[in-house]
Amino acid sequence: MSRSLWGRLLAANLILLPVFLGATGLYLERGFKQSLDSAAVERLQLHVLTLLAEAEYEQSLTMPAQLLEDRFSQANSGLAGAVTTPAGDILWASDSSVGLDLAGPAARAGDLGAGEHHFHRTADFYHYALAVLWRTGAGTDVPLVFHVLETTGPTAAQLASYRRSLLLWLGGAALGLMICQLLVLSWGLRPLARLARDIAAIEAGHKSQLDGTWPREVEPITRNLARLLAVERERRERTRNTLADLAHSLKSPLSVMRSADSRSPDYPSLVAEQSGRMQQIVSYQLQRASGGSPHNLLYKVPVRPVVERLRDTLRRVYPDRSVTFEVGIAPDTCFRGDERDLMECLGNLMDNACKYGASRVRINASQAGDQLVVDVEDDGPGIPQHLRDVILARGVRADSVSPGQGIGLAVAADIAVSYNGSLVIGDSELGGARISVRFG
Amino acid sequence: MRLLVVEDDPHLRLQVARHFTGAGWVVEEAADGEEARFLGEEHPYDLAIVDLGLPGISGIDLIREWRADRREFPVLILTARGDWRDKVQGLEAGADDYVTKPFYLEEIEARAHALLRRSGGRVQSAVRYGALRLDFSAREVELDGRSVDLTAYEYNTLEYLVHRRGEVVSKTELTAHLYDQDFDRDSNVIEVFVGRLRRKLDPDGELRPIATVRGAGYRFTLEPDS
């Protein structure tokens, strides 16, 4: 279930909704129960005060035969009254109290002081008692306790019916909320479903591009996906071109060898020369194919570690050449693209600088927005003006590369171009060449 | 010098092995990383040539394991892709140099000599030790400007002693680095070679280039001219 967004949101709803609605129901029910109890207190208090008003005491307690409240006179009316001494002796009990045990309640009110009252509920009854000090005509004070008992039956029924309607309303609300949530969910997740459909269509070949507008939350995904698709298309195109170039350019040396006379004394040198040419072509095309695709925004590669790894490698490869590397690159300088491309490009440039430089190689990088410029300088003889254009002009067709000339610069330029950049050959203040490569 | 060639292509492996055998090296071959790892841990090589694209254990992992196991012989890697990431990863794993395929055998040999020179602490390919001059690339020895005629075994013995200059080299060590496994290790042939070398390099008995350390082995005594 946790593997689907739907499932997660649904599970959360299924757990949270009952918890919240249950708590609400419980709170409402308690509140209602309390209000029922306080209403009972008021009612019983009123009955006691009425009884008190109706009572007479001269030598002993007398109550009128007909009380104001009819229910005191009817058996099983659910309301009963009694007057006791503090010790619990029953002085008077209403007709309706027949069959009721009055001793228990009377005992509970035994230690009430004059003017104090007592209220409590049992499973069946509300019980209200008020203790008074009755001053007789003779001037003596007689302590009396007035009791009223009422069955809880009617309030219990009221509570039960309240509970039923509460359950009905809250249940209905839960159901309604759930349905609303499901609708909101399916509406909110609709772009994802559309994305899945579109990707399936691209997989099936019915579509080639993710088009249309997308919500802000999904947009980074679709943007990168669209870019990835474009890169992939370009890579396919590139591979096709490279293969075509490779096949085409390998055919010429092959045909030279095929048409040569194998008995001629020049044959071995011809084979050596042509196989050398083929090797150049293969390595050039291989390096070209491995480099360069505009992956912008996909990766951020810190430049400095790459330069330092290359520097350490070159130091091991050329231990006899005491070249000093000066690396001036801020730690947060980043290349947006494939690390392999950056390494290939800078590897070629730094290798050349080591080979042709006398003792110093300087690597600087600067970044402005998405544009990255890396300068590789050395203190060697530099590159003559007339060769600069020749070196950069090739890279269109591999068979124009003459054996013996390094292809590193051309490959580096190719990679820069594939990142919408360029490579410029200039003069360094160190005295040698300054290769400036720009990405983006 | 004892060399291990690790390459899965049988033709290429055989070509390299033949070339180095012809140049006076003791060569052993391994077709995959597993075998190479075992051999590297069993035998004292002076150099290994390792193809990066091996089946099973990759060349890079092989070098890493050797280095983790304190096998410090120089390693030359062969890479077919030739891109910088392969080179950087190879050298970071502990290799010392790389050659990109396709290559000329002469190029590999030159790199191999350069690596040996480095591991022996030498900078030049030809070094003068007083009256003696050794050219490690041409495998030639001169005494007072005159060429000394040495057999391949005699030259190899001298080269190894010079390679380990200043240290005592036991007869067992010499045997392991100079001869094939099936060589009879009990024979006193080493003593014979060293005896002949001394006569050829030091006919007057004044130079004393090779000292005998009793019960331990031999030591090349001369210092290179600065």
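qc> Chain B touches chain A at residues 81-85, 87-88, 91-92, 96-98, 100, 102, 114, 118, 123 (CB under 8 Å).
qc> done
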